[in-house]
Specification:
Blueprint: H1 3-30, E1 38-39, H2 56-80, E2 88-90, E3 93-95, H3 97-127, H4 134-138, E4 140-145, E5 150-156, H5 162-167, H6 175-194, H7 203-224, H8 230-252
């Protein structure tokens, strides 16, 4: 790739990321969630309000830190072992191959995260599902209700503040669950393809399980904190996992990895494409 084409590629990448990021930010700043009504005897909206244990800022910081640090470490090790791409030249400056590979992986991860957040946020504003602590936070004063007890117009007498009263309508789906699962699945796929070490068969899988367990905990904490219904978390997990799979498979596009090795065999120099199913046969 020539230096001119490389610079154009970087500029287009940044523009694409800014477009998605601005659309997400516009929703947060100017959009209003759908004003859904409620049934007066709905027990699922009667839980007490609690401060969240894991804030959005903390979750975003941990998620990005995990992936960025992991990608940098893996690409540096791959470069030391001579498995990185050739160096690039940009504006007269030589860019090491591992830096370029890290830029690609981190950029694709960030773009996928932005798309995932945009999808979840748009769904929140369109659906407008009330959170489990709705009654406690809003303390609604009923204006119009149907014979079946469904309230269509009401005002909130609670002192939660405008931001909290707006946020109480953004229950479905869980953005925490979606983002945490997106990070976990992307992490699992990335080290599965790029971080192969013959010193241990299980170390990589332990790391994958720990990250998946952490994402699972984040989702469960949203139910414990009365911030989401269980179905909100379940859909959030699904959105995050599917987005990560699509981002990794169709944007990152891992071409090939080293073949699986046993503890006793010598490493092979022939690449093996993934995924490749293993069929077990039995002779009768």
């Amino acid at each position: 790739m020539t230096e001119h084409k490389l610079l154009i590629k970087i500029c287009l990448d940044v523009i694409a990321l800014l477009i998605v990021g601005f659309a997400w930010l516009a929703l947060l700043l100017w959009a209003k969630p759908y004003e859904r009504g409620y049934f007066q005897n709905d027990q699922s909206l009667s839980l007490p309000f609690k401060e969240e244990a894991i804030s959005e800022t903390l979750l975003a910081g941990l998620g990005f830190a995990l992936l960025v640090i992991t990608i940098l470490i893996v690409e540096i090790i791959r470069n030391i072992k001579g498995k990185s791409v050739t160096d690039k030249t940009l504006c007269g400056t030589e860019i090491p191959g591992w830096v370029w590979e890290s830029y690609v992986a981190i950029g694709i991860f960030t773009f996928g995260a932005a798309c995932q957040q945009l999808l979840v946020t748009m769904t929140k504003y369109v659906i407008g599902r009330l959170r489990p602590h709705f009654f406690d936070l809003c303390q609604p004063s009923i204006t119009i209700a149907t014979r079946q007890g469904y309230v269509t117009e009401f005002s909130c007498a609670g002192a939660g503040g405008a931001s909290k009263l707006k946020n109480m309508r953004l229950s479905f789906p869980s953005a925490h669950a979606s983002f945490s699962m997106y990070c976990a699945v992307f992490f699992i796929l990335y080290i599965q393809v790029n971080a192969r070490w013959r010193g241990s068969k299980l170390l990589r899988h332990v790391a994958q399980f720990v990250v998946l367990l952490a994402a699972w905990y984040v989702g469960l904490s949203r139910v414990v904190d009365n911030m989401h219904h269980s179905s909100d978390v379940a859909v959030g997990f699904a959105v995050g996992a599917v987005t990560a799979l699509i981002t990794f498979a169709y944007l990152y596009k891992p071409k090939s990895v080293e073949p699986r090795r046993s503890w006793l065999t010598e490493p092979s120099t022939q690449p093996e494409f993934l995924p490749r199913p293993v069929l077990m046969t039995r002779n009768h």
